[in-house]
Amino acid sequence: EPDHRLLVREALARIYAEIRVQEAPDGETAMEWLERASRDPLLLRGGMVVLDLGLPKASGFQVLEWMRDVPALEKVPVVVLTASENPMDADHAFNLGARGYFQKPADFRRYLEIFKRAFRIAEEVSGEGSG
Q1: What is the rounded distance in angstroms from the CA atom of residue 58 to the CA atom of residue 60?
Q2: What pLDDT, in 10s, does the model give residues 6-44?
Q3: Distance between CA 77 and CA 98 in Å, rounded?
Q4: Higher per-residue pLDDT: 68 or 128
Q5: Per-residue pLDDT tens over the stretch 97-106
Q6: Which residue, among 34, 40, 39, 23, has the nearest Cα to 62 in the 3D structure?
Q7: CA dist., res. 131 & res. 127, Å (int)
């Protein structure tokens, strides 16, 4: 949804002023962009996918499942940000490889808290392979 994407963009920019954000209005567009990005490791380095489960055309679950079948994407950290209050959705997202699961907040400060935590999750994932 455009309003949520705006809040996400603003929260990310506030946390990391130089962050580059690629938006997709639906699951199919997200998969198309990720497919292109999977061919260019520089686009994915240090990256993270923030995924809504309620995407049109292809659900967030479908995107997650598809990502795990693309070798260049299987280790990209995915954080789910959704309106769903169903605990089974969280379990399913984690089973498909999501690293974090957050409900969409009502206020901007909570978005900031969520993304600070999401970046810590992404940093932990990127550090798993080094050492």
Answers
A1: 7
A2: 888 888 888 777 777 788 889 999 999 999 888 887 777
A3: 7
A4: 68
A5: 999 899 988 8
A6: 34
A7: 8
What strands lie across the sheet with 78-82, from one edge to the other? 49-51, 78-82, 100-103
pTM: 0.83
The whole-angstrom separation of Cα 92 and Cα 100 is: 12
CB 82 within 8 A of CB 112: no
Mean pLDDT of the chain: 85
The residue written with tokens 């940000």 in the block is 81
CA 3, CA 38: separation in Å to the nearest integer? Answer: 28
Biggest distance spanned by C-alpha atoms of the chain = 40
What whole-number distance in Å separates Cα of residue 65 and Cα of residue 74? 9
HSE-up (13 A, CA, CB side) for residue 76: 27
Distance CA(87)–CA(93), nearest Å, equals 10
Helix or strand run (H / E) with residue 100: strand 100-103
DSSP class of 44: H
End-to-end CA distance of the chain: 40
